Amino acid sequence: MAKKKQKSAKAKPTARKTIKTAKKAARSPKGKGGLALSGIRVLDMTHVQSGPTCTQLLAWLGADVIKVERPGTGDATRGQLRDVPNVDSLYFTMLNHNKRSITLNPKSPVGNKIFARLIEECDVMVENFAPGAIDRMGFPWEKIQKINPRMVYASVKGFGPGPYEDCKVYENVAQCTGGSASTTGEIGRVPLVTGAQIGDSGTGLHLALGIVAALLQRERTGRGQRVTCAMQDGVLNLCRVKLRDQQRLAHGPLKEYPQYPNIPFGPAVPRAGNASGGGQPGWIVKCKGWETDPDAYSYVIAQAAAFPALAKAIGREDWLTDPEWNTPEARLPKLDKMFEIIEQWTMTKTKFEVMDILNPLDVPCGPILSMKELAEEPSLRKTGTVVEVDHPTRGKYLTVGNPIKLSDSPTKVVRSPLLGEHTDEILRGVVGFSKKDIEEARKTGAV
Ligand code: COA
After folding, report:
1. Using one digit for the tens of pLDDT, what is the confidence trace for 16-25?
2. Ligand 1, atom nearest to 76 Cα
C-alpha cells in the first residue's frame, strides 16, 4: 500500500513536467522543428502506383525520398497513358512529387556497391516489385539487415504467404481477390470494380502507416524491421463491413439490403447496388437535369431520426401518421418505393439544391460530384487538397495534394523529378563519390 502511494506521488510531478515541456514547445515558433519526418531518408525502389503512393506520402511528411530508377527508362509509368509526347505522364507526375531521382542499376557490379552504400545511408527502404525481384538483385532482407540493422524494409506484394504468393498483381486483380468486386455492383448483375484505387493507393497508405510505426518502435529498440502489406489484405481490410455481413447472414437475411424481403439470399454476401453499408437505408436518386447530365444525382439517407424532416421536406407529411410508413420496420419491405417517391421530389431540384435543403434538416445526403466539379472546387484548392503544380517540360497541371493535414508539418507539393535529375547530387552528397567516381560509374552504365 505504502509502495503504491510512493509510486503515484512520484508519477505526478513527471506528468506535470511533461505537460509543462509541451506547453513551452507549443509557444515556440512553428516550422522550427522541420517537418514530421525531417531527417528520415527513404530508399525508394517503387514503381507504378502502390509503392509510389506510399513514398509520396512519406515525402509530403518531410522525408528525403530517393527514387531509384533503371538507367535509360526509369519507372515505366513515365511513359504510360501519355497525353503530351515525350513528357512525363500525369500517371507518373501525380505519384512522385517531392522526391529526388537517381538512375542506378543495382544488378551491375558498380551499381551493386552504390546500392549497398545507399542502404547504409537510409532509414527506410520501400519496394513493390514482383516477389523475389530485390532478392534477385542480390539484396535479400538478411543482407539488408546486416548492412544496416536500423533499416525499416517495407514491401507491397499482391498476396501474403499462401497459394498465390508468387503472383504479380495489379489494382483490379486486388479488388477482385480482396472482396470488393463480389460485393460491388447492381443486384443480380456482374461484379464491378470501383474507380477508387483501393488496391494500389489503399495498400500504399497501409504501408506508410506500418513504416511510421516501425520508425517509432526503432526509437525504443534501436533496430529496424520488415513491414509487408499484401494488396489482397489491404482491400479486405477496406471491405471489413462485408465480412461482418457474411457472418450476420448465418443468422438470417440482411434486412437492410434492398433484396429483402423479395429476393432470396444465397450463401455469400450479395451485391447491393447503392445501398448504404451501415444500418440506415440510403440510395442514389436522380436530380434535375439527369436526362443530359450523367452526374445529376444525389445520395440520400433516410435515417430514422431525420425521417420526419425528410418526409415534410418532400411534401409527404402524411407518412408520419400512416402506419404503412411511420416506422422503420414498416418502411423496410418497400424501401425501393420510398426512394422512388423521394426521387420524384429530388428530380425537381438540382443536386446542390437537394443538399442545401436537406443538410440543414440533418438528413445525411451528398451530391454526386464529377471529377470536373472536384477539380474546379475552390474550397479544395484552398485546403491544398487539389493543387496546381508547374513542371519544366509539361507546364502547369493539377494534382491531388496531401489529404493528411498536420498543423505543425504543412505540405508544400513540389513537382516530380525528371529521370535521373538528382543522380550526381545523390552520389556526391549521400554516397560520398568524387567527380571522378561519378564519371567512372557512368562509364560502366551503373548510373
Ligand atoms: N535497374 C535494373 N533493373 C531493375 C531496376 C533497376 N533500377 N528496377 C527494377 N529492375 C528490374 C527488377 O530487378 C526486375 O527484374 P527481374 O524480374 O529480372 O528480377 C524487373 O525490373 C521488375 O520486375 P517486375 O516487378 O516483375 O515488373 P513487371 O512490370 O513485370 O510487374 C507488377 C509489375 C506491378 C505487376 C509487379 O511489380 C508486382 O506484382 N508488384 C507487387 C504488387 C504491386 O505493387 N502491384 C501494384 C502495382 S501498382
Report:
1. 666 677 667 7
2. 29
